[in-house]
Amino acid sequence: MAHSQSPLLPTSGIELEPGMPVCQTDLPLDWYQSEFRPYAEEYLALPDRTPETVLPWLDRYVRPALDHFGDSLLLLAHFYMGGEIVKLVERYGGAIADSYALALQAARNPGKKVIVESAVHFMAEAVAILAHDDQQVWITNPKAGCTMEMLAKDHMVYPVADQLIERYGDDLLVIAYMNTSGRLKALAGSTGGAVCTSSNAHLVVDWARQQGKKILFVPDQHLGRNTAWKLGMDLERLVTLPNPQIYGGGYSLDDGTIAGGIPALDRAEMILWGSYCGVHTIFSADMVRWWQERGYRVLVHPESPLEAVQAADGAGSTAYLWKAAMEAPKGSKLVIGTEGHFVRNAAHEAQKRGVEIHHLADIPDPSFGTSGCGCATMSRNDPPHLAGMLDLLRLGKGPDINRVLAGDNVDERTGRRDRLEGRERSELIEHAKASLERMIAITEAGD
Q1: Phi and psi for 51 in degrees, rounded to 5?
Q2: Could you read off the pLDDT of 8-38 as tens digits, one per residue?
Q3: Which residue did the predictor score with more confidence, 169 or 19?
Q4: Which residues make Cβ contacts (< 8 Å) with residue 115, sequence separation at least 6?
Q5: How far apart are CA 290 and CA 301, in angstroms?
Q6: What is the pLDDT of residue 14?
Q7: Where does the pLDDT of residue 401 fall: very low under 50, low under 70, confident under 90, or very high at 90 and above?
């Protein structure tokens, strides 16, 4: 598993090939911060997107930055990033991993003083929470977000959590999925709870159950439900809170808002926040069976609906899925249900070894009406952002909005940031760090 790698992660082995397009989608110029527009203008003016064209342009900015910072620089990217960024970060000596392994990189590599992450904001913030005081964390595009996290902002979750804490007191424990802001990780820490990832959610939830606690699982209802099923919990004792896309967080917990009413809430062993990942919710058991009937082995991510997970041949984190794809013997036929960029990268690499891989939603049957979806918010990190971020840092002109500190809250549409100061940030770091460290201890004890 990826989280066992230390101090630095091995590369994923994805290679750029001559003649293949490097970037699948260009952002409109007005989506770039003013400091990044000169880089974007140059990039958009390139005659094509092949490595033969893009790499020499990138080298003009990236190579001087690598020489300037030397071993003190660490580049990071998540598996879900568009193929071009995964390949480029790796080409320049960076590491690619799942969210658990990324979060640990600053803490476990104290010699890395400047950390630049091409991923979504909550991932960079997790790195910053665990970072040493002399380490700086930067994100190539602060507007790179997560739809699930956007449906679980602190102003949505806090009012509901306050009602639950008032009703259940110390009997309530919050588990915050890694796909949350530092503010929610701090909420988990303040209740004696922990963070979890898709690879260790079963360990963290089992740990909470052993304490006899009622659990508020935030934000992904599907990961929470799948974890409960994996642990053999009574699914009748799960309560799912209202859809935050419709209700936000401004509602009272009463018989009108809770399915089964307050009695169901009191009986519940685990309460699930109603958020979800737009990429994974499209998967169904019918899709799984369509591929299985044609001789494919189907693996899905546990952010998928329970019915799809139950029908699949296996379910697990991005690290689990990548390992399965890379270790499949020649002649294997796999179907993977997760983010589209990830599956395309896996399929490209596996094809070299005679392994066939398809995206679960790419069914050539019009009755399904689906296709493999990439995470659009992660795709907001692109070559101009990488080139500009490294060049500006080399020049001592890194934009403050790209600096990531614990507690930062960035609007994914406008880029506007709400930053905590002084005592508020210190308290957040204390609680959020405690929740992350509990996760690490639980996970390493369970390995």
Answers
A1: -55, -35
A2: 444 455 454 454 444 445 677 777 899 999 9
A3: 169
A4: 73, 74, 76, 105, 106, 127, 131, 135, 136, 137, 138
A5: 18
A6: 47
A7: very high
Q: How many other C-beta atoms can be found within 10 angstroms of the C-beta atom of residue 325?
A: 22
How far apart (Å, rounded) are the C-alpha atoms in residues 381 and 326? 25
* Both tokens assigned to 407: 């507690």
Provide the 3-class DSSP secondary structure of residue 335: strand
Residue ranges of domains in the chain, CATH in brackets: 2-145+378-415 (3.40.50.10800), 149-278+441-446 (3.40.50.10800), 285-359 (3.40.50.10800)
pLDDT at 227 over 50: yes
Tell me, yes or no, if the pTM score tops 0.90.
Answer: no
Tokens representing residue 139 in the block = 């994100």
- 3-class secondary-structure state, position 160: helix
Q: Which tokens in the block code for residue 409?
A: 């809250």
For residue 26, what pLDDT is reported?
66
Q: One-letter amino acid identity for 376? A: A
Question: DSSP letters of 112-155?
Answer: --EEEEES-HHHHHHHHHHS-TT-EEEES-TT---HHHHTS-HH
Q: Which amino acid is at 344?
A: R
Exposure of 326 in the CB half-sphere (CA atoms within 13 A) = 13
Contacts of 263 (CB under 8 A, 6+ apart): none
Task: Assess contact for 307 and 364: CB atoms under 8 A.
Answer: no
Give residues with Cβ within 8 angstroms of 301, minimum separation 6.
Answer: 198, 280, 315, 316, 317, 318, 321, 337, 338, 339
